[in-house]
From TrEMBL:
Main location (coarse class): membrane
Bilayer topology annotation: Multi-pass membrane protein
Pathway annotation from the record: Carbohydrate metabolism; tricarboxylic acid cycle
NCBIfam families named among the record's database cross-references: succ_dehyd_anc (TIGR02968)
Keywords from the UniProt entry: Cell inner membrane, Cell membrane, Electron transport, Heme, Iron, Membrane, Metal-binding, Transmembrane, Transmembrane helix, Transport, Tricarboxylic acid cycle
Positions of heme binding: H62
Cell compartments where the protein resides: Cell inner membrane
The protein, known as: Succinate dehydrogenase hydrophobic membrane anchor subunit
Organism: Acidihalobacter yilgarnensis
GO CC annotation: plasma membrane
Lineage, highest ranks first: Bacteria, Pseudomonadati, Pseudomonadota, Gammaproteobacteria, Chromatiales
PANTHER family from the UniProt entry: SUCCINATE DEHYDROGENASE HYDROPHOBIC MEMBRANE ANCHOR SUBUNIT
Protein residues bound to a ubiquinone: Y74
Keyword Iron among record annotations: yes
Length: 109
């Protein structure tokens, strides 16, 4: 993935991440004293769970494009480049699965 597609993924994901960050700061500012039960109730709402799931996908896509660009620019031997990209892919996949597990537990599934 390179060129226009990578650029578009990076920009779209950055806009979503920024918007979600502003939403999160606003939510924390308007509800500063939530206890654990209130947090769980708030985070288990279907629309917020969907927004969080999209946030995680966007975060992982943004991270992949950024790290991939750095690896391509600075890791010149092909074996090193492939090994680093594979390690990053496995790490990001594990993070995504872990986040999905957390979201599924929060939803009660």
């Amino acid at each position: 993935m390179s060129g226009l597609r990578a650029w578009l993924i990076q920009r779209v994901s950055a806009v979503y991440l920024g918007g979600f960050f502003i939403f999160g700061i606003g939510a924390l500012a308007t509800h500063p004293h939530l206890n654990a039960g209130q947090w769980h109730d708030w985070l288990s709402q279907p629309l917020l769970l969907l927004a969080l799931a999209v946030f995680i996908v966007m975060l992982l896509a943004h991270a992949w494009v950024g790290v991939r660009d750095v690896i391509v620019d600075y890791a010149h031997p092909l074996g090193l480049r492939v090994g680093l990209m594979a390690a990053v892919a496995v790490f990001l996949l594990a993070c995504g699965l872990w986040a999905a597990h957390i979201l599924l537990r929060a939803s009660g599934i």
